[in-house]
Structure formats: structure tokens, C-alpha cells
Design goal:
Helix content: 25-40%
Strand content: 15-25%
Number of helices: 15
Low-confidence stretches: none
Distance between the termini: 15 Å
CATH class of the largest domain: Alpha Beta
Oligomer: single chain
Bound molecules: N-(iminomethyl)-L-glutamic acid, fe (iii) ion
Mean pLDDT: 96
CATH topology of the largest domain: TIM Barrel
Number of strands: 16
Shape: globular
């Protein structure tokens, strides 16, 4: 089965060279083709080009073909969301009110709210129910244009519940059309009973959780919340060494609350990405410049918690790539809407629409280790794309920040 999309007003994110990431000044140069066609063969992108260069012979051998006339509409590569916590139980809008009344994220966490509150809810929820709740969010983000997602554990905080979360992520991998990567985040917070003996919790992660997670092959990556009031650089160091031993590449929650050293420890262990990074200055940028690590901003969390904004422009000026992910979670970013994240990135971080498009597609694909398969319109890549409704320009897409402009979603070559 082939799908032929014709008369595309503008085909966005075309990359003949299939670069694995886009950085620095290149992020402002978005490759597009006006009045284009796109040919999908099975799961993959087979061909694309200008309408005027299209002829029936391009279709090749074909038994069935479905044609979509995209007049007035654009085609984008699907969003890749490289940082989420979408497996969680219930919600935390009570803390939302507390925050509005003036309590900080750290104060809420200290009172047993925050991540520990989600851990309690998750403990009381069965694996089947957890899967049902998470799948509602999966369907929501698919309709919002996401085609690949990274999902973290981290609301279990004991071996059994961490495994429960990771098994739910595995089931999502097996049953949803999304491309899913899973991350073990046992080091998300200290359970109350370890408050006075945090290193014993670190021991539990290293000696019990990581070996069991690895034995069941439940995690692609390992994450630590390395920040003020959470895990220290020394503790992060130990956990990352243990995870790497089992083949889990690091992705770090770093410098959200302070200049915590999280970026440097991430770079030291060749993290795929360091995320949040609100507290980033020259020395952190320098560390990132000599690395393979993707700096990832989470504009939804910074918006929702009223945090300072990560210096995206300075990073790009220094020649770094920047990625944008949603951080979809019940505490600091209860939205996985990547189009909205793009709008936040443009307004709050002064990123150009072109930069925001690369940041939320190819660069987040890199931050999930899959940029050879998705993240751009390139021959041979997986056909994860969406067709917009009629829009005048691609800049209109992040500009109209409250409008749902996604009309048709195609994942792995299937029209959903
Ligand atoms: O990425 N910063 C740490 N963890 C999450 C928040 C999780 C929560 O509050 O439930 C984050 O923002
Ligand atoms: Fe997070």
C-alpha cells in the first residue's frame, strides 16, 4: 500500500542529507519545498519533490494507492517528544491552587506533595488502570501531532512500583502507533522513609532496581534528577556508572532549580541529553560544546512553574543545538502539546519558528537516539507526518498558539 500526498502547499523539514541533528546558525535555515508531493511506501518515506516534477512513473510498482489532495495545507514531520512522564496516576490540581497561593515547587515537595504525592497515587493504582490512564494521554498527544515519545518511570520510588511503571511503558510500546523509548528514573525523589538516609536509597537503586530493570529489558535510558534538594552530583555519578554498566545511556534532569553541576555530570557520562537547564551559564555552555549531549529546554515546565528561561539564544549563538520537549507530567507541565511548546519557545525564549521546528523534530529525535529513523522528511525514514489545516505560512503554526491546526495524522505510514 502506498500513500501519495499531492499539492502540498509547503513540505516542511525536508532534509536530503538526513542530518542527525541541526545546530547553531543552521537552525534558522529551514528546508522546505513549496507545492510539493510526498510518496509513502508501507512504513517508509519513498520519495518527495516538487509537484511539477511529479509523474505517474514515480509511483513505481504498486498494487494499491491512496491519494490525498493537500491543497492549501502543509505537511510537517511529526513531533518527537524526548522528555515526558505520561505514565502517572490521577492528577495534582490541588497543588496548582497551592502554587497560585504562593508556595514554591520545593515547598510543595517538602510537605510531601509533588513527586511523592504522585508516588502514593501510583502505588494505589493497578497496572491495568495505570495503562488505561496513560493511553488516554497517548491518544491525546497523537492527535496533537506527536509521533515519537520518551516516557520515564520515577513515580514508583520502590523496586516493585518502578517495575510496574516500566511494564506499562513497555505495553504502550507494544500497543500504540507511537515510537516509544523508555527511561528508568528511580532517582526522581527520595521516598519519605529515606529522608534521613538518602545514600541508602541510592544503594537500593544501584543494587536492586537497576539489575532488575535490566534483567527484564525495561529501559533504554537512565535518568537522575540532579538538582538542589534532590540528588547530588556524587549520587548522580554513582547511579550513572551503574546504569551505563547495564547499557542504559544517561539523560539527565539538570539545573532546573540551581546551578547544580547536573549539566557537567551529564556531559562527563556522555548523556544523550540534559534537560530543563534553566540555570545555564558560560561554563555549562562550554562543557556542552565539547560533547555529544543535546541541551533540551522544557518550555511548558518553565511556564507552569514561573521559572527563569534557559538561555536558548546564547546556546545557539555558541553553536550548540537546542531541543524542545514537553515534560508532560502532573506536577510541573500537565500538557504534552508540542505545538504549544513551540509557541512558548518562540515567545519566551525568542526562538524563531524555524528554530522551534528543528528543535521539536530532528533535535528531539536525536535526544531519543532515533534521528536516523524519524525527525525529518528524508527518503527511507519512517513515515511519521501530519497534515495541517489550511494555513497561510508555516510561521502561522506556532503563531496561532491556541488553535488546533492539525488535520490528519500519519504514523508508520498509516492514516489515523
Ligand atoms: O521534569 N523536575 C523533576 N521532575 C519533573 C516533575 C515531576 C512532578 O512534579 O511530578 C519535571 O519537571
Ligand atoms: Fe521531567
Amino acid at each position: 500500500m502506498k500513500i501519495l500526498i499531492t499539492n502540498i502547499k509547503e513540505l516542511i523539514g525536508v532534509d536530503d542529507k538526513a542530518r542527525l541533528l541541526v545546530k547553531g546558525a543552521d537552525m534558522a535555515n529551514l528546508n522546505t519545498i513549496k507545492n510539493a508531493y510526498l510518496l509513502i511506501n508501507g512504513e517508509l518515506i519513498e520519495d518527495y519533490g516538487k509537484m511539477e516534477d511529479f509523474s505517474e512513473s514515480k509511483l513505481g510498482d504498486v498494487d494499491a494507492i491512496q491519494e490525498i489532495d493537500a491543497s492549501g495545507r502543509m505537511v510537517f514531520p511529526s513531533f518527537c517528544d524526548s522528555h515526558t512522564h505520561i505514565v502517572y496516576a490521577g492528577s495534582r490540581e490541588i497543588e496548582y491552587s497551592d502554587k497560585i497561593r504562593g508556595l514554591s515547587y520545593e515547598e510543595i515537595a517538602k510537605r510531601g506533595g509533588g513527586i511523592l504525592n504522585s508516588a502514593k497515587l501510583l502505588h494505589e493504582t493497578s497496572e491495568a488502570e495505570l495503562y488505561e490512564q496513560a493511553m488516554q494521554r497517548v491518544h491525546e498527544i497523537i492527535s496533537q501531532g506527536t509521533g515519537a515519545v520518551e516516557i520515564k518511570s520515577g513515580y514508583g520510588l520502590n523496586t516493585e512500583d518502578e517495575l510496574k511503571m516500566l511494564r506499562v511503558i513497555k505495553k504502550i510500546k507494544e500497543t500504540s502507533p507511537l515510537i516509544v523509548k523508555s527511561t528508568f528514573l528511580g532517582a526522581h525523589a527520595f521516598p519519605a522513609e529515606y529522608k534521613e538516609k538518602p545514600d541508602e536509597y541510592v544503594d537500593l537503586i544501584i543494587n536492586e532496581m537497576i539489575p532488575q530493570v535490566a534483567a527484564e529489558e525495561l529501559a533504554d535510558f537512565i535518568d537522575v534528577f540532579c538538582d538542589k534538594g534532590f540528588f547530588t552530583v556524587e549520587q548522580t555519578d554513582r547511579i550513572l556508572i551503574a546504569g551505563i554498566k547495564y547499557g542504559m545511556r544517561p539523560k539527565i534532569h539538570a539545573n532546573e532549580l540551581a546551578k547544580s553541576g547536573g549539566i557537567q555530570v551529564g556531559v562527563k557520562y556522555d548523556a544523550l541529553s540534559v534537560d530543563h537547564i534553566e540555570y545555564t551559564e558560560e561554563e555549562e555552555i562550554k562543557a556542552l560544546l565539547n560533547s555529544e549531549t543535546m541541551p533540551t529546554i522544557l518550555p511548558g515546565a518553565a511556564f507552569f512553574l514561573n521559572m527563569p528561561y534557559s538561555p536558548a539564544r546564547e546556546m545557539m549563538k555558541a553553536g550548540l543545538p537546542v531541543a524542545i520537549a514537553s515534560d508532560y507530567n502532573p506536577g510541573s507541565s500537565p500538557s504534552g502539546n508540542m505545538k504549544l511548546m513551540m509557541s512558548f519557545a518562540c515567545v519566551n525564549y525568542k526562538m524563531l519558528p524555524e528554530e522551534a521546528i528543528y528543535a521539536s523534530t530532528i533535535n528531539t529525535a536525536y535526544a531519543m537516539g532515533i534521528s536516523d529513523k524519524v525527525g525529518s522528511i528524508s527518503k527511507g525514514k519512517i513515515a511519521n507526518v501530519f497534515i495541517t489545516s489550511e494555513i497561510p505560512t508555516y510561521q502561522f503554526f506556532p503563531y496561532a498558539y491556541g488553535s488546533d491546526l492539525i488535520d490528519t495524522v500519519i504514523l508508520r505510514g498509516i492514516i489515523l
